[in-house]
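Exercise: predict the fold of this chain.
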Amino acid sequence: MTMIKPIIRSATAADLPHCLAIDPAFETDYVWQMDNHAHAGQIDVSFRTVRLPRPMKVAYPREAKQLNAGWQVCDEMLVADDNRSLVGYAALAKRPAQSAVWVQDLIVAKTARRNGVGGALLAGVVRWAREEKLAWLVLEVQTKNYPAIQFCQKQGLNFCGFNDHFFANQDIAVFFVKAVH
């Protein structure tokens, strides 16, 4: 496996069409399944890894129009440039009340996945958060996006919560957090 050493930089307006051209869909053999049980005044929620009977192709939960609209109001957008093309991006929103940067989107081109681009983007997010004097990084992931869940865990992020109707398509979001100071 050849590691890619991309340049991580702030996006420009000229980068946005290239970001939209990156296909965020993915394929997975696993998902995180949520189990929710209420009994005797107690609610138990758990997530477990479930192997699917066959690989599933999953669309990203935000369409191009939603992505573009989100980018127009995000506080920072970083891109990963491998000197030939853009191979990934991260859209960031400040949450000052929580002293956090919220990673709305972290997308890596299919041809660059599992080559260090996501880690480089996440390191760029941490640098930006430190410059902004923020203490936490929060990343949202679909429970269907098992590769991203594994990425979060590998990068030292910890599961910290969920929203069972977070995305427009009603997919469950799980949230991961990491201290950045």
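Check your answer against the key: The two ends are 31 Å apart (CA to CA).
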